[in-house]
Design a protein that fits this description.
The protein has 316 residues and is of the alpha/beta class. It contains ten helices and twelve strands. It folds into two domains: 226 residues, Aldolase class I (TIM Barrel), CATH 3.20.20.70; 61 residues, no CATH class. It starts with 15 loop residues before the first helix and ends with a helix.
């Protein structure tokens, strides 16, 4: 487990819990498609939540086929998946391509060995480059990298070195986030030594240094925390005023509805946001009883809508 991760996580060394979770996930997909309506049109699919390719190639193929049976995918659907290079295989790359996946997001965070040790995520540049090569060889040509600043043991110089090493692999996009240390809420963060965390001034210097490095390498700054090559869809969307922001970050998709599947998944409907039960057991109980797993939501206020309009307003 990565100690910095702020999302609900679980560790398993057996396939049984993974296959059981997939069975519940298929039940939820069926339940939602029945209540929404069969053949609901889909323009984008995102496999997130840590390491979605923890399932094998066969399970991924079956899950995508199940989704296509329950929803009407557009011919130009954007299908994205998050990748952990440490466990990614050529066989999985082949399965992703076979199911129409056309974008992959790779977690890098930092290439500094001291930082990696401090956050329990040892990942070499060689592993990362191999994942990129495997994806591109199988036709998954749109690559995103995730970088984080404000991590323990991190310095301005190490942030620059990480950004330069990442740029050499020429991903289409970068998402650059600041590490949020809240051990009172996220138990695995208690394993991180707080004394090694940079202060606010250093964090600001790190963020600026990464941005300067990426812009200097030809990437366009997109909104608050994204960077993209000039011919990437995000950069083009920003240029033409089509850029949108949702719970996954920036997007060129103007659809106002997002259906979230799985434990803790967040969805968006016209009136606001909804979230599934966070724990797997509670999520599974809801689905087994034939109920949606929604546990909480937020109805947008007029003030929320004004703020959203300002955030998404095209740059002039």
């Amino acid at each position: 487990m990565c100690w910095y991760c702020g999302f609900p996580t679980a560790v398993t060394r057996r396939n049984g819990p993974i296959l059981n979770y997939l069975a519940v996930l298929r039940q939820e997909i069926s339940l939602v498609s029945e209540q929404a309506r069969q053949g609901l049109p889909v323009s984008d699919v995102h496999f997130g939540g840590g390491t979605p390719h923890l399932i094998g190639p066969a399970e991924h193929l079956a899950l995508m086929e199940f989704l296509r049976r329950h929803f009407a995918f557009s011919k130009t659907a954007a299908i994205a998946v998050e990748i952990d290079p440490r466990t990614f295989t050529p066989e999985m790359a082949e399965a992703l391509a076979a199911t129409g996946v056309n974008r992959a997001s790779i977690g890098v965070q930092s290439f500094d060995p001291d930082v990696q040790k401090a956050i329990n995520r040892i990942q070499s540049k060689v592993q990362t480059a191999a994942a990129v090569e495997n994806l591109r060889r199988h036709g998954v040509g749109h690559i995103n990298f995730d970088l984080i600043f404000g991590l323990p043991k991190q310095t301005v110089q190490s942030c620059i070195q990480t950004a330069m090493a990442a740029v050499a692999m020429r991903p289409n996009r970068f998402a650059v986030f600041g590490y949020a240390h809240i051990p009172s809420v996220i138990k695995n963060q208690r394993l991180i030594e707080q004394a090694g965390l940079p202060d606010g001034d250093v964090r600001a210097e790190q963020a600026a240094a990464v941005a300067e490095t990426l812009v200097g390498a030809g990437y366009r700054e997109i909104g608050l925390d994204h960077f993209a090559l000039p011919d990437d869809e995000l950069a083009l969307a920003q240029k033409t005023g089509r850029l949108r922001r949702n719970s996954l970050g920036y997007s060129a998709d103007t659809c106002k509805n997002v259906i979230g599947f799985g434990a803790s998944a967040i969805g968006r409907v016209g009136e606001g946001y909804v979230q599934n039960e966070v724990t797997r057991d509670s999520y599974a109980r809801h689905i087994a009883s034939g109920r949606l797993a929604t546990s909480k939501g937020h109805r947008l206020t007029d003030d929320d809508r004004v703020r959203a309009a300002i955030i998404e307003r095209p740059n002039r």
